[in-house]
Amino acid sequence: MCRTMKQDDKYVIEDKGALSYAELGTSIKKSGGHYIYLLETLGPLPAFVRLWCEIIVIRPAITAVVGLSFGRYIIEPFFAPCQAPVLAVKLLTAAGVSLVVYINSCSVNWTARIQVILTIFKLLAIGLIIVPGMMALSEGRTENFQNAFDSNTITLDRIPLAFYSGMFAYSGWFYMNFVTEEIINPERNIPLATISSLIIVTILYLLVNVAYYTVLTADEVLASGAVAVTFGERTLESFTPVIQVLVSLSCLGAITGGLFAVSRVFFVASRENQWPTLFSMIHIRHHTPLPAVLLMVSTDHSYFPAELATV
């Protein structure tokens, strides 16, 4: 019940947030997302504080979490059944993020194309989870759902935790507003992309969770360090390495999209005279915000020495 409540509660928040940002994107036609909206509505001080939080805490932490997941998933098949060395995971993480930085520095078009390819890999990974789970459910494996809606375990102190626990999974609906100025016909495309992507992601996430809990118990899900791998070992044992590689590519896609979007925040902040002028410059041939991209990679790498659980 707690897991179901997390999904429902978080969908309510993300739904309202996404629709609000769709409206903001059509009203304030500037790139920069959170930063530019704070600047336009509350003034320079809140926007400046949000900018520093982004560069020092928020973006490096998110990149570290997703990047370390990428490193772990892609290297563990080579060390199975043992765990991969921590140093190897971190080195591979640094290499993956550096590759993303290089791509973002070379070409906007190539970044967009690679993002599409990585999204396809992400959907393949989700499909390899949903299909076996639905097949198992159709065979009558419903024992893990017997008490799924038991409300006796709900207490007021667990409701905020339910919202918080689902926050990371459903985030991402605001990234389009970071690049508003680069979107063709934003009045039409921002609301259309926001609403359609929110519906698709919600349906896929719900199906993935149903698939997980059809095959695994709640305790097994909580105990697993990589739920997709545990699921694959139960359903498609021969495809487990494939699932791991696809999940790692999915993580790489998340890093690529985040770096592409957030680098525009520092570009815009520099244009608004709240950041050094250097970061409003673009590469003379590639037309990419190279200084802003390089700034982000320097702060991102500083978080990699930490453990995934502590980030």
UniProtKB/TrEMBL annotation:
GO terms for molecular function: L-amino acid transmembrane transporter activity. It is found in: Membrane. Keywords: Membrane, Transmembrane, Transmembrane helix. It is a multi-pass membrane protein. Gene3D superfamilies: Amino acid/polyamine transporter I. GO terms for cellular component: membrane. The keyword Isomerase does not apply. The chain crosses the membrane at residues 56-75, 87-104, 116-138, 158-178, 190-212, 242-262. This is Amino acid permease/ SLC12A domain-containing protein. It comes from Chiloscyllium punctatum (Brownbanded bambooshark).
